[in-house]
Specification:
Strand content: under 5%
Largest sheet: 2 strands, antiparallel
Number of domains: 1
Strand order of the largest sheet: 1-2
Number of helices: 9
Distance between the termini: 6 Å
Helix content: over 70%
Structural class: mainly alpha
Length: 212
């Protein structure tokens, strides 16, 4: 049988419902603003609703031949809504009285679960070896979101630039020498693990095949 396993379908379905409910609440808040419709807020919720709708349809059994593509679209929509909402919230980190940080964090976590569901469908034919490569790759890649956040806030970069000339160059060289191989190896391991289905099925992502 193609498509996700029953457990993953139920998880994806639940996430899709939760996302649509949260987006509906956001629509009500944005459209009911006393100072006029807050279109910027409504637009973020519309993107999140799109991601939730795709997740809902996937959980209901649509996109059986290639649920990974559908879930990837949902993940992109959720991450985009979370990041844009966070950036637009300014220093107060609130939009229309709604705290953005926990909402964005929850949507990023939901995107992570959906991404894991997509990866499970891709990796399943490869067995334990593919899962082992996948998780090793995730461990290697895990520091990079934290590093990107630290650089975006300026604290880490500012600390490096405040060092003396030799120390600054040494830190930059050491960082590049350690981080670039870790990034390359992590991406390679995750990509190789996720290619398990395409190795077994010539059609790749679009070809479906005998899944779980």
């Amino acid at each position: 049988m193609t498509g996700l396993t029953r457990g993953w379908r139920l998880s994806v379905l639940g996430i899709g419902v939760a996302l649509l409910v949260s987006a509906a609440v956001g629509f009500v808040i944005g459209l009911g603003n006393r100072d006029g419709i807050a279109w910027f807020f409504v637009s973020f919720e519309a993107v999140a609703a799109l991601g939730g709708a795709v997740a809902l349809l996937t959980g209901l059994g649509r996109f059986q031949e290639s649920p990974a593509w559908a879930l990837a679209c949902s993940v992109v929509a959720l991450v985009a809504a979370a990041v844009l909402g966070y950036v637009a919230s300014g220093t107060e980190r609130r939009l229309m009285g709604v705290p953005v940080v926990p909402l964005s964090a929850l949507r990023v976590c939901a995107a992570g679960v959906l991404g894991l569901a997509a990866c499970s469908w891709l990796i399943a034919p490869g067995g334990r070896g593919a899962w082992r490569r996948f998780f090793i790759g995730l461990v290697l890649l895990a520091p990079f979101p934290v590093l990107a956040y630290a650089l975006a806030r300026g604290g880490l970069l500012g600390w490096i630039l405040r060092q003396s000339g030799g120390a600054r160059i040494g830190l930059l060289v050491a960082g590049v020498a350690v981080l670039l191989p870790a990034l390359a190896m992590g991406v390679q391991l995750v990509a190789d693990a996720c290619a398990s289905r395409s190795k077994r099925q010539p059609g790749g992502l679009a070809g479906g095949g005998s899944g779980n």
